Amino acid sequence: MTGKMRLKHNTKRKRYLVILLGLVLAVAIPMIIRAIPHEAKTRVINLKAQKYGYSPERMVVNRGDTLIIKPTSLDVTHGFYLDGYPVEFIIKQQGVAFQKYSWEGEDGKIKTDWDKVSEIEFTADKAGKFIFRCTQTCGNLHPFMTGELIVRPNTPYHLMISLSLWVVLSVFLLYRNRGEIEKREPFNLFERIPWLKRLLKLRGFHFFVILPNFVVFYLFILSALWGSPVGNRNIAIIFVWILWWFALKAIVVPLGGRLWCMICPLPAPAEWLGRKSFTAVRYIQKPFKGLHHRFLGLQKNWPKALRNIWLQNILFLSMISFGIILITRPVATAIVFLVILAMTFLLGVIFRQRIFCLYMCPVGGFLGTYSSASVTALRAVDPEVCRKHKEKCCYVGGEGGWACPWNQYIGNMDRNNYCGFCTECIKSCPKDNIGLFLRPFGSDRVLKGYDEMFNVLIMLVVAIAFSITMLGPWGFIKEAANVTESGKLIPYFIYLACIWGSALLIFPGLFIWIGRVSNRLSGFSADHRTMTLRLSYALIPVGIFAWIAFSLPSVMVNYNYILGVLSDPLGLGWDLFGTADFPFEPFYPEWIPTIQGVILLAGLYFGISRGFMGLDPLIEDGSVKVKAMLLPSVFAFLVIQVLMKLYLG
Ligand code: SF4
Ligand code: SF4
Q1: Hey, which of 109, 243, 547, 647 has its CA 20 to 30 A from 557?
Q2: What ligand has the least distance to the C-alpha of 354?
């Protein structure tokens, strides 16, 4: 071993030792805090329940305390289900409550019944944060009626804070000189799984994957219009806003990028109409307006000034301004989908290609930016082959496939953002030069404009805002957001001003400032815009994991609603599979905050590490990279701390 190699080896060893010591410290500190003795007390809590919150909304006690809860409802009947504790009761008016108790029957089965009580006593013997939830459908926002019991010392929270500091330290040590890590060979799934390519090349493939989704989706719209008006009993609300939203953020986008766009049923009818075909390609020899197809309608091109995602950013913010209404009122969901459907037809008649998807779809913006992190990518196998191929059938259309409906040229495509995974180029390329590549998470580490940076920051702000509104215990915020029921316009406008102001002014302003200062701090001579856009990539993994953490409780807590609506999709009292009255039994709810904490740690790790990697093409020197990444890492760390406080603190 040469002297230089030995030095490198020793530096690496020291680095791993520091990381290990950091981990020991990160675990030890919360354990030491946990060992500090607390005096146990008896606490009497007068708990008032009122649509859609409890007072007090947070109960902070010490481990070992005896709690005597005296509940009453100020309006309708509510419930109280405490995660992690065998405490459940129904709250009526004037201090009347019914406590659930259970026993083992002679047949060995667990039986339950309700006891009329005026107070409920139990010992807070587990430390951490425990959510209590309403179990009685009390109104539109019933699934979001929660409160919090904090049993100190809140060890899981302390552990996550110290681990997040450890993650930041470790990433800085590991990634400052990332040049040492070898680059892997691209892994082309089409080479390993040839039948997959054959399947995607089939002309009918796209149509037949959309079809079932198309049928189900439009049945959901019917259900949203004519089924139960109660959100948690309507299949449209439960499947779209609980199951689909979670699957999109946690599975589809991280694994398949814009895979959803491949099967999205909303733009499909307009596309079929425009092509005058469900499956076949209508190829014309002589190009019309540069493409080898003629579509129905005016076939105009989208204005150049609007070829960005600013419109999508504004439309997304507009949509989430009614977020809580949208996800609790089936008719609102139906209206949004019908408006989208109408827009796809209107735009389809005026413009050619998927203009709605590219520039107007409210969720299309984040689908694009977040897809850049996905572990799969459709790319040209050999860009040189594309360069030499004059016809460029993938772009202008060929006999085998339609011209790229997303207006992308795969020959030089280096990001997933605007590839809708429609599979047409796989079919049209006569050179068989398209591959589906597997790659590490967070690989397209470039943002190309401030529209994309704003999208990333908007998504972060909305993840925080939704966490506060929907998962938090603050009834007055839910009331402000729920304007159509509460009728309180001023709190609603304040609520909107907070979200829009943070999303369009505070967060972007702060991050642009961070970009400038980081650029100066690093002493690197990149222009501010380039540096800011590079650094903002770090927030994409943070955002993806923040959304996964936010969406997780809706599945773990509300899965019974999924089973319920499966048996009774229209809310007409059916019981098709015997699950219509599946009891409210959240799935290991006491573990939700810890799992959310781990997810956020993963977001922090991927965010900062990908931020470092994004600087690789610009900066070689490790210490310059460290200086450049310092402030964006603090920003990412603080965002994660806000979410940790909301989920665990
Ligand atoms: S048709 Fe195939 S070879 Fe030609 S430019 Fe497109 S992807 Fe490349
Ligand atoms: S034609 Fe190819 S590049 Fe264009 S959207 Fe479809 S899959 Fe993506």
Answers
A1: 109
A2: 2
CA distance 446 to 467: 28
Residue 630 CA to residue 377 CA, distance in Å, equals 30
Tell me, using a 6 A CB cutoff, whether residue 421 lines ligand 2. yes
Q: What separation in angstroms does the CA of 546 have from each of 419, 465, 595? A: 24, 12, 12
Q: Which ligand is nearest to the Cα of residue 433, counting in written order?
A: 1
List the chain domain ranges.
42-153, 156-183+447-648, 187-438
CA distance 347 to 295: 13
Closest CA to 375 of 454, 280, 426, 443: 443
Handedness of CA 455, 461, 467, 468 (dihedral sign): negative
Alpha helices in 429-538 (DSSP H): 450-466, 475-481, 483-486, 489-501, 507-522, 528-536
Q: What share of the chain is helix, strand, coil (3-state, %, to 5)?
A: 55, 15, 30
Burial zone of 307 (CB within 10 Å; 0-12 exposed, 13-18 middle, 19+ buried): middle
Q: Cα(17) to centroid of ligand 2, in Å?
A: 47
**Alpha carbons 141 and 232: distance in angstroms, whole number:** 9
Count of helices and strands (H, E) across the chain: 27, 14
Q: 276 in the Ramachandran plot: left (φ > 0), alpha (ψ -120 to 50) or beta?
A: left
Structure token digits, residue 424: 């047409």
Q: What pLDDT is recorded for position 180?
A: 47
DSSP annotation of 183 reads P
* Class level of CATH domain 42-153: mainly beta
Enumerate residues lining ligand 1, CB below 6 A.
380, 385-386, 389, 392-394, 410-411, 425, 429, 431, 433-434
Closest to 619 in 3D by CA, of 608, 629, 609: 629
Tell me, using a 6 A CB cutoff, whether residue 404 lines ligand 2: yes
Mean pLDDT by 10 residues, the chain (649 residues): 72 91 97 92 97 96 97 97 96 95 87 94 96 94 96 97 98 80 77 96 96 92 89 88 93 97 96 96 95 95 96 97 94 95 96 95 97 97 96 96 97 96 97 96 95 98 98 97 96 98 98 96 86 96 98 92 87 86 90 98 98 91 93 98 98
Candidate from 379, 395, 422 with most ligand 2 atoms within 8 A of CB, to mutate: 422
Ligand closest to 394 (CA) is 1
Q: Which residue has its alpha carbon closest to ligand 1 atom 8?
A: 386
pLDDT at 7: 73
